[in-house]
Design brief:
The protein is an alpha+beta fold. It folds into two domains: 4-252 and 417-428, no CATH class; 256-392, no CATH class. Helices cover 32% and strands 25% of the residues. The strands form five sheets. Strands 1, 4, 5, 6, 8, 9, 10, 11 and 12 form a nine-stranded mixed β-sheet that branches. Helix 4 (135-148) packs across helix 7 (218-231). The chain is globular. The two termini are 30 Å apart.
Length: 432
């Protein structure tokens, strides 16, 4: 099954551990133009200059900015800004943050270990995807990997575990991180390097024979796999992954709530939804009601905020809705079609609004939100939205069941929080 090994990572040279905050950045696909500008200003050696090098007016192609990133990366290594660890190591990555999915907030800890994992085709069922990918981002990341020959960001992988792997990783944490910082969301990140051969061998032995489910970084993984297929050099056969145990109590998934814009044909959304769902009035829009729904385990699949009425309605699939799902999209399993996200896409967007389920429509018509009070305010603001659908977070068990059935989760089904930051450690495939 999964083949795991340590590596001699390249890390930023720090005067003190909390200097790490100068150099790190959120993953490339979480950055907009303003964030990139801010990170450029933060430090001349911030990793964003590699992961999202800014285009220039004299660039002929997108690959030009990646060639510039490769030049910057080489200069950092030559100047000792990035230094290679002398011994094969694994890197323990701890994140302390607040679980804000319920009214009663609580502090939690998620702990992963940064290692190399041998690339495997998805058909081998060693590394498993749960989301579909797009060609554009893969082409962009391929150009960067080709220019730098370095994995500058990590894939976030979930290791199937009964708790022993998690306990071993937690045992490698100490009171003296090699690097630490707190991000703008208040998440405290700490990195610990372990080069003890006995500990590493025990960790690798425990990880062996297990599967890895990709939580985040599908484009990066597929890019690494395609690059290896194209070049077939042994040093390209591995990719840098942060492995987190499925038994980690800090492994949380946030839901992406959906605000639906007025688009397509004119509809009475409340009346149309009632054709497929039994609606239960839960009163005026209130964040506490939504939080209670998310924490509950009753029969209601969705909570609908009617933007026109300003009221919340619990939605339970009725007989007509069940029959509709059974008859539509025969290529999909009922497990997949009964996912709350699938029901919103198939019933609301495709059937009621008459819009195709392509990436552009789902991006333009749906606004994805995590902040419940902000979502309520936007829904009832200026009439731009039919309303909002609030859903419970997907569980690891549900994601695993969909993947085991040979399917992938719909777009924006999972929001693993917090994100794995870039710049903690790099894997240079051609260190010379």
């Amino acid at each position: 099954m999964a083949e795991v090994r340590p590596f001699k990572g390249f890390r930023f040279r720090l005067r003190r551990p909390d200097d790490l905050g100068r150099f790190i950045a959120p993953p490339y696909d979480m950055l907009d133009g303003a964030m990139i500008d801010d990170l450029y200003k933060k430090d001349d050696c911030n990793i964003v200059r590699i992961t999202q090098n800014k285009p220039r007016h004299d660039d002929h192609t997108n690959a030009d900015r990646h060639a510039r990133a490769a030049s910057v990366l080489s200069s950092w290594v030559e100047k000792g800004i990035l230094q290679r660890d002398e011994e094969p190591s694994v890197y323990i990555y701890e994140q302390r943050f607040t679980d804000d999915r319920c009214l009663e907030k609580k502090e939690v800890v998620r702990t992963g270990v940064v290692v190399l994992v041998k690339l495997a085709d998805f058909a081998e069922k060693i590394v498993l995807p749960h989301e579909a990918t797009l060609s554009g981002p893969k082409q962009d990341r391929y150009e960067l990997l080709d220019a730098c020959r370095t994995h500058t960001e990590q894939v976030f992988g979930l290791l199937d575990d009964d708790g022993r792997f998690h306990a071993m990783v937690r045992g490698m944490v100490n009171d003296h991180p090699d690097g630490c910082f707190t991000d703008s969301d208040g998440v405290a990140h700490s990195l610990f390097r372990c080069s003890d051969r006995t500990s590493i061998e025990a960790l690798i032995a425990l990880a062996g024979g297990r599967t890895v489910l990709i939580a985040d970084g599908h484009h990066r993984y597929e890019t690494g796999l395609n690059f290896y297929r194209d070049h077939h050099r042994p040093e390209y056969a591995y990719i840098m992954i942060t492995l987190v145990s499925t038994a980690d109590p800090g492994l949380l998934i946030r839901p992406f709530h959906r605000l639906v814009r007025r688009a397509g044909r004119s509809v009475d959304m409340h009346a149309e939804i009632a054709e497929y769902f039994t609606l239960e009035d839960h009163g005026d829009a209130d964040a506490k009601t939504i939080y209670r729904f998310i924490a509950s385990e009753d029969r209601r699949e969705l909570l609908f905020l009617d933007g026109a009425k300003g009221r919340l309605y619990g939605c339970t699939l009725n007989d007509n809705g069940e029959q509709f799902l059974s008859s539509t999209m025969p290529e999909r399993s009922m497990l997949w079609k009964r996912l709350p996200v699938s029901m919103i896409n198939v019933i609301v967007i495709n059937t009621i609004m008459g819009l195709p389920l392509d990436g552009r429509v789902l991006h333009d018509v749906i606004d994805y939100v995590n902040n419940i009070p902000a979502g309520i305010e936007r829904c009832m603001g200026n009439g731009d939205f039919h309303g909002g659908f609030f859903i419970r977070p997907a569980t690891i068990a549900t994601v695993g069941a969909v993947v085991a059935a040979g399917e992938r989760m719909p777009q924006k089904s999972t929001n693993f929080y917090p994100k794995i930051y870039s710049g903690l450690v790099l894997y240079r495939m051609d260190p010379a």
